[in-house]
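_Full entry_
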Amino acid sequence: MMITVMNPVKVFTVLAAGVVVAAFAAFLTHAVMATAPIFPQSQEMPSVIDSPPSPQYAAAVERARELVRAAMLEQNLPGVSVAVGIGLPSVASAKEGTLVWAEGFGWRDLGTRTPVTPDTRFNIGTAASAIAGAVGPLGLANTGADSAAEWSPEHIGEPEEDFPPLALLRHVILQPLGLMPAEYPLPGHRATFYVPRSDDDPSRGRRLMYMRDLACCANGMAFYSTPSDLVRFALATNPGSVNGELAGGMVMSLMTKPDRAIVVAVTSNMAHAKTSSLAQRIGDAFAERTR
């Protein structure tokens, strides 16, 4: 019996060609996935609730869920988190207001399909200046600042980012084989952030947000919060309406209805999400069904 030993150069060439083909296939797959609808139908969209709403607010919550799911389908958003509070006090004590609903929708990380929960932390961008001073006095446990590198472990868009073929090699071969740890989902309940691929329109597809877009605060820090903490902040301080932007687009909205004592916080992990209009519609749903 004859045993054929392949030339080491040929072996290396075959392996290299395989890596290139796999990397190219992964690139094409990623390009298709980045433009395809994330949730073709609303029933395919996961949601995680903090605790069931009281019967008093059940109808309002059901209507609000419909509004969130419709907005996510229309805008092709990966993830959204919502919280609603009732009662705007005149003194700085969040205990005088009540958090009546908190729920996460969709994925906080698309690649791993890790769901958004009420504890998912979203970067709130330019809203940091309005919130930062209240973290300590109000004891907002899920609000604070991290190094931007914690939110972009691959330093996306920066000079130190891996050469693309090496990044694909890591994602396609080394990580699936367990030879390197995965970067996502981000630890600490952090949401992975995305920006539209073109025209500031999330429905046209998305890419990972650049590290420099996340570093909207001083000294390269990224400021984060949860909708529940944002509602607690508003219940304690009655700040009016606050919007936060990243990469030139809205990612968070905090809206108050003082006449009805309603506070709504909406966050998303996609820049240019229409969080403000969604918060307004949710507030209207609660106002109509809690009269």
